[in-house]
């Protein structure tokens, strides 16, 4: 495959880590071309980006409506046959671009590849590693048994063909935190052929200021995406589906968003399917144990 890996870098006021991010891209040489889409930063982001930009790299700064909107703008304009995106605080691993491009060249039937990711702290120190494993629409929708059990994809480790992007469409800007998850769900609904590339491709930085730290809100968005897709695309194993729907219903009650009145026992009678949820089952077991202890 002759063309480079083309990566969008969405950023806003990212001066703290941007030098490291762009240095990691440039360290991959001519096998990477990057397009930095800045949301009209007020710090040194643009100065840093222009210092690192090589011939073929692009720096754009315009106001946007959030990260998903910035990515849609960048990806629609930056070109490239093999594409992806890297946050302004993450790193591309050494030789990652070459490995990704070679994999796609050797597997023309594959639309999307994902690898492994190193977790790093704000100082760049390694804190752990992760390898996702998502193989089907049922896997990605099963957030309780798969996604939140350590098999999730971490966004920077995923790369895909432009033809998949054009087939599926851009990121949904109604989601602030889980727009990448929603995109991957649509990829599976469209019949994506995904494969694991057994190599560390990126380094994902975990620090207090990052958007990913808003775990509660991200989980709410992910649950809403699952509910929507279960309602409109039910082609998964019925038992797996019932368990998912039961857990989602219970979580909605737990968050107070369901509008249910009365305590847990009353609502359990109304929704006996909650017993398919491990959390609701454990709560029921503990309540029964307390009841019988008091009766002695």
Descriptive notes:
The chain is an alpha/beta fold and 296 residues long. It folds into two domains: 5-216, Spore Coat Polysaccharide Biosynthesis Protein SpsA, Chain A; 237-294, no CATH class. It contains eleven helices and nine strands. It has helices spanning 15-26, 45-52, 67-77, 96-106, 137-141, 162-168, 179-189, 215-232, 238-255, 264-270, 278-294; strands at 5-11, 32-38, 58-61, 82-85, 91-92, 112-120, 126-131, 158-161, 194-205. Strand 1, helix 1 (15-26) and strand 2 (32-38) form a beta-alpha-beta unit. Helix 1 (15-26) packs parallel to helix 2.
Main CATH class of the largest domain: Alpha Beta
Compressed to H and E, one letter per element, the order equals: EHEHEHEEHEEHEHHEHHHH
Per the CATH scheme, the topology name of the largest domain is Spore Coat Polysaccharide Biosynthesis Protein SpsA, Chain A
Number of domains: 2
Please give the number of β-strands: 9
Q: Radius of gyration in whole Å, from Cα?
A: 22 Å
Which sheet architecture does the biggest sheet show?
9 strands, mixed
């Amino acid at each position: 495959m002759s063309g480079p890996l083309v990566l969008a870098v969405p950023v806003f006021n990212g001066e703290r880590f941007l030098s490291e991010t762009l240095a990691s891209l440039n360290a991959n040489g001519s096998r990477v071309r990057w397009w930095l889409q800045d949301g009209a930063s007020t710090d040194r982001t643009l100065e840093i980006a222009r210092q690192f930009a090589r011939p073929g790299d692009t720096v754009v700064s315009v106001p946007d409506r959030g990260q998903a909107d910035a990515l849609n703008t960048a990806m629609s304009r930056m070109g490239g046959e093999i594409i992806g995106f890297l946050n302004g605080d993450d790193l591309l691993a050494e030789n990652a671009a070459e490995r990704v491009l070679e994999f796609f060249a050797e597997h023309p039937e594959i639309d999307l590849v994902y690898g492994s990711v190193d977790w790093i702290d704000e100082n760049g120190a390694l804190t752990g590693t992760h390898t996702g494993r998502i193989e089907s629409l049922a896997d990605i929708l099963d957030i309780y048994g798969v996604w939140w059990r350590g098999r999730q994809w971490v966004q920077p480790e995923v790369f895909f063909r432009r033809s998949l992007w054009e087939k599926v469409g851009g990121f949904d800007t109604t989601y602030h935190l889980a727009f990448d998850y929603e995109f991957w769900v649509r990829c599976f609904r469209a019949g994506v052929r995904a494969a694991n590339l057994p190599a560390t491709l990126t380094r994902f930085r975990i620090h207090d200021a990052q958007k990913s730290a808003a775990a509660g809100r991200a989980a709410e968005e992910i649950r809403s995406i699952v509910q929507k897709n279960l309602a409109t695309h039910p082609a998964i194993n019925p038992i797996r589906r019932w368990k998912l729907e039961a857990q989602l219903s219970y979580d909605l009650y737990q968050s107070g968003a369901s509008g249910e009145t009365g305590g847990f026992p009353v609502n359990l009678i109304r929704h006996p399917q909650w017993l398919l949820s491990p959390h609701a089952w454990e709560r029921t077991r503990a309540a029964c144990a307390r009841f019988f202890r008091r009766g002695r």
